[in-house]
Amino acid sequence: MAAPLWLLLALLGCTTALDPALEEAWEGWKILHAKEYLGEAEAARREVWEKNLRRIQQHNLEESQGQHGFRLAMNHYGDLTDEEFNQLVNGFTPAWQEEPVLLFQASEDLKTPAEVDWRAKGYVTPVKNQGHCGSCWAFSATGALEGLVFNRTGKLAALSEQNLIDCSQKLGNNGCRGGYMTRAFQYVHDNGGLNSEQVYPYVATDTSSCRYDPRDRAANCSSIWMVAQGSEVALEQAVATVGPISVAVDASSFSFHFYKSGIFSSMFCSQQVNHGMLAVGYGTSQESGRNVSYWILKNSWSEVWGEQGYIRLLKGTNNHCGVANQASFPMV
Ligand SMILES: *[C@@H]1O[C@H](CO)[C@@H](O)[C@H](O)[C@H]1NC(C)=O
Ligand SMILES: *[C@@H]1O[C@H](CO)[C@@H](O)[C@H](O)[C@H]1NC(C)=O
Ligand SMILES: *[C@@H]1O[C@H](CO)[C@@H](O)[C@H](O)[C@H]1NC(C)=O
């Protein structure tokens, strides 16, 4: 009789030798990111980490030979397999629109600036960290609302993702297991407000009940807009004229997980979006004699990831990674 599959897998897992030369790097990584493991979990996690490290090194070697336009680096998610990473942090699934939304379409005679960066105008709060919770949708939504509040009041205040996680389930949001930016805006609309991060801090779990405090109304939303689906031209106009815009992208590839710097593009990027982010601008840079345009997207994986928490994603080339497929923003 054949051995059951789990036994086979376990045996294979045990035979993989860990690289002793990486001992110091592993210990350093654990200390840096405050990682602790119980018993056998340590060897298994280290094996995953070593595999990720080798893939990162291989990519960067190829980058130095001109095969890629961006570099990778180890980060605090380095002990996760691709599947675990996606299950843990990519919490966005596009759905049929149920909430009433207005449509933002490109207008032909609108001239947009060549470069936009809302960070320089004071619209963007410091990069946050969603931790081990699929709450990207909430971070994307607070980012757009923070920009809107700044525009209206001249004050930049961090808004509460936990408020959205704990209180918007009945709209179809699923806490740490995913949600929708438009339904987050709908919650703020229906609720008549959203608390600040300070009053309602982030705890990266979805087991507590709603603690919204109506005395702290740090944001409002009176209408919700979707950007014409798939149109990078409309998205550019929205970013240029409105402020930071919530977007979703396909973030499921290894190179996205461990992105460090440069203009990201990948043949593995699809149009199936699964991760909520915030478009805070766009620009163009000279890359080996060519002009390459990019979106500037704020992530919620801490400043360790990417360019101080941001990614520059290839722009204007077939809606790369589906960046214009689910773009939305709130208005007052
Ligand atoms: C808010 O946006 C409007 C137009 O969208 C703009 O004219 C105004 O200067 C903005 N206010 C601030 C504080 O940036
Ligand atoms: C939200 O709306 C209320 C009522 O119109 C107003 O008093 C409050 O200042 C608004 N808050 C923000 C942050 O815009
Ligand atoms: C790149 O863009 C700059 C500024 O828009 C322009 O002057 C230059 O001709 C462009 N270069 C190429 C190679 O297209």
From TrEMBL:
CDD domains: Peptidase_C1A. GO terms for molecular function: cysteine-type peptidase activity. Residues 1-17 form the signal peptide. It holds the Pfam family Inhibitor_I29. GO terms for biological process: proteolysis. The keyword Membrane does not apply. Residues 26-85 form the Cathepsin propeptide inhibitor domain. It comes from the Eukaryota. Keywords: Disulfide bond, Glycoprotein, Hydrolase, Protease, Signal, Thiol protease, Zymogen. The keyword Protease applies. GO terms for cellular component: extracellular space. Coiled coil: none annotated. Residues 112-331 form the Peptidase C1A papain C-terminal domain. Belongs to the peptidase C1 family. This is CATL1 protein. It comes from Calidris pygmaea.
